[in-house]
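A further point concerns the way the authors explain their paired sequence and structure data. The central task, working out the structure tokens from the amino acid sequence alone, is never made concrete. I therefore recommend that a typical entry be quoted early in the introduction. An entry of this sort, consisting of the sequence and the corresponding backbone structure tokens, reads as follows:
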Amino acid sequence: MGIGTKLNDSLHEFEEKTEGILGSCVIISSQALVMAEASNHFDRGIIQGMSERFIRLANETIESLIPNSSLRSITIEEENHIIYVRPINDKYHVVVITDRSEAAGLREMNIKELIKKLNTLL
């Protein structure tokens, strides 16, 4: 089984077992290219473009405010949805789109567990 299949399987399992997940994918941090995805709810091109802009803008903003710092995560909240962009390691990020049906702390814990699992695959 290839790495892409293992990543896809891990994302599918995460979405099936975690309440409120609308979509998730693994991207290459430098290019925001989607390596694996579990959901067909969102257009791959939109995820790639959005992620690349989020990461670039967040990096530029944090560097302007706090020189020599490094970006740890991005969270964007809308009235009914949340988008998380979290690093897996130096090369990859996971993007998770959720609704608000699960408590924030539990959502964060589930994403951290997913990151641990994905990191072992990468």
